[in-house]
Specification:
Layout (H helix, E strand, L loop, with lengths): L2 E4 L5 E2 L4 E8 L2 E7 L2 E2 L12 E3 L2 E6 L2 E7 L2 E4 L5 E5 L2 E2 L2 H10 L3 E12 L2 E9 L13 E8 L1 E6 L2 E4 L3
Antiparallel strand pairs: 1-15, 2-5, 3-4, 3-12, 4-7, 5-6, 6-16, 7-15, 8-11, 8-14, 9-10, 12-13, 13-14
């Protein structure tokens, strides 16, 4: 095995991160990621510079999705006049079960810690479904998932390039 980082989510950057696969398995959440950035202070980074990890698997052990929302938006014209507003919408249990299966080639742009108590971590995962046309600037669907787990294991075999600023 190459590299394994445990409970160091804050030592990764999700700026360019793409979910290739997202499954809810027995007792864990399983993700396959591309373009995950390993920060310089990650225990597995001996280069001491931000670098892209190769294809990465993430196992959130004893993990589950607690809740989720489809994020709303406000759309303004060039003069700052509000043209359209859509509020956040809470996802149903059925939508929460189906959403991970739809997460192929979608962006995981953030994983933010909410709390840690009784040996469990609670995080917010921000996911964006890209537009069909990469040059289209239309509004896209974004979701916030609240997840809970006991242990986060990130594994990858090799490093790619250093991150350029």
């Amino acid at each position: 095995m190459g590299f394994e980082s445990i409970n160091e989510i804050d030592q990764f950057s999700f700026d360019d991160c793409v979910i290739k696969k997202f499954e809810v398995q027995e007792g864990q959440l399983y993700l396959e990621l591309e373009a995950l950035i390993v920060k310089a202070r990650n225990s597995q980074n001996t280069n001491f510079t931000e670098s892209y990890a190769g294809p990465t698997t993430v196992r959130l052990k004893e993990g589950s999705i607690l809740s989720g929302i489809k994020e709303g938006y406000k759309y303004y014209d060039a003069n700052g006049t509000l043209l359209e507003e859509t509020p956040d919408r809470k996802l149903t249990d059925e939508e929460l079960q189906v959403l991970p299966k739809q997460c192929e080639d979608v962006y995981l742009f953030s994983m933010e810690k909410d709390k840690e108590e009784d040996g469990k971590f609670t995080y917010y995962m921000e996911i964006e479904f890209p537009s069909e046309d990469e040059y289209d600037n239309a509004i896209t669907d974004t979701f916030e998932l609240k997840v809970e787990f006991e242990k986060a294991v990130f594994s990858w075999e090799f490093y790619m390039n250093r991150v350029e600023n």
